[in-house]
Amino acid sequence: MLAKKLLFLGMPLVLTLGFTFSNTTNAVSKDSKEDYSSQTVEEQKQAYKEKMTNLSQEEIVSNFERIDREYNIGEEFSLKDQAFVEMYASPANPEDVNILATKYISGSKTSNGVTVKVSGNIKDDIQNLINQSFGASNLKTSTTAGASKVTSVKTEVFHNAYGLVGSGGVGKVYSGSISTSGKNTTLSATKRYSAVVVYASTWCTVTVNHKGGTFTVNPN
After folding, report:
1. What is the DSSP pairing of strand 199-210 with strand 131-145?
2. Are the beta carbons of 216 and 203 closer than 8 angstroms?
3. What does the alpha-carbon distance between residue 130 and residue 214 come to, in Å, rounded to a whole number?
4. pLDDT score at 23
5. What is the pLDDT of residues 36-45, one digit of tens each?
6. Calpha distance 102→100 (Å, rounded)
7. Considering only CA atoms, which of 143, 124, 138 is closest in space to residue 195?
8. What span, in angstroms and rounded, lies between the C-alpha atoms of 36 and 211?
9. DSSP label of 147
10. pLDDT in tens, 44-64
11. Helices (DSSP H) in 38-107: which residue ranges?
12. What's in the keyword line of the UniProt record (predicted)?
């Protein structure tokens, strides 16, 4: 009898707490939506860009690699990833006189007594209407110390192209690479593809496997 009375007396409190929690949850949800919608798409992207200023070369390459892994061709990027691409990829400019963009890169790294250096040119041509290309010219990779410890060295030039997809957003329209393997190599090659490009990124990564582990060189 006492248990029934306590249960009866506790029901209004439970209902009150439930009503209060429901209202609080709805209010938080509503406020969040209002806060989100109070910014335009461009304002949100600008906020992301302010947080992504002054990234290191390793961070830039890491983000391009992550985006390449996470999205399929034709899939629209999140606003944060769109902002990153707009900041760090090269824009296509049909009025640009210098159609073939060539960039000299260099870098080196030492780990466990192994030193690998890379230098040369990477290039891309994204100014055409559909037919685009990317490649490398006289890109030399050298193992200058600890060669006897090295099991493999792979030099790769990656290229991702981005265009308008979905409801006017930016997404990946092409992804490709060229590569060579060896402790001391020179890479000179060009690869062509067809896509309507708005932005593109081209970068080089050298992966070194040795008896003590693995490391990468990201020249800039």
Report:
1. unpaired
2. no
3. 38
4. 40
5. 456 898 899 9
6. 6
7. 124
8. 51
9. G
10. 999 999 999 999 999 999 999
11. 41-51, 57-70, 79-88
12. Signal
The burial of 205, by beta-carbon neighbours within 10 Å (0-12 exposed, 13-18 middle, 19 or more buried), is given as buried
Q: Encode pLDDT of 170-202 as tens digits.
A: 999 999 999 999 999 999 999 999 999 999 999
Mean pLDDT of the chain: 84
3-state secondary structure the chain: CHHHHHHHHHHHHHHHHHHHHHHHHHHHHHHHHHHHHCCCHHHHHHHHHHHCCCCCHHHHHHHHHHHHHHCCCCCECCHHHHHHHHHHCEECCCCCCCCCEEEEEEEEEEECCEEEEEEEEEEEECCCCCEEEEEEEEEEEEEEECHHHEEEEEEEEEEEEEEEECCCEEEEEEEEEEEEECCCEEEEEEEEEECCCCEEEEEEEEEEEECCEEEEECCC
Tokens of 209: 């496997």
- Measured CA to CA in angstroms, residue 51 lies from 22, 36, 107 at distances of 35, 17, 26
By residue count, the chain amounts to 220
> Which amino acid is located at 170 in the chain?
V
24 pLDDT band, cuts 50/70/90, is: very low
Question: pTM of the full predicted structure?
Answer: 0.78
Find the angle CA(57)-CA(61)-CA(66) to the nearest 5 degrees: 145
Output DSSP code: residue 77.
P
Contact status, residue 136 vs residue 101, Cβ threshold 8 Å: no
SS3 26: helix
pLDDT above 70 (res 84)? yes
Terminal CA-to-CA distance of the chain, rounded, Å?
Answer: 80
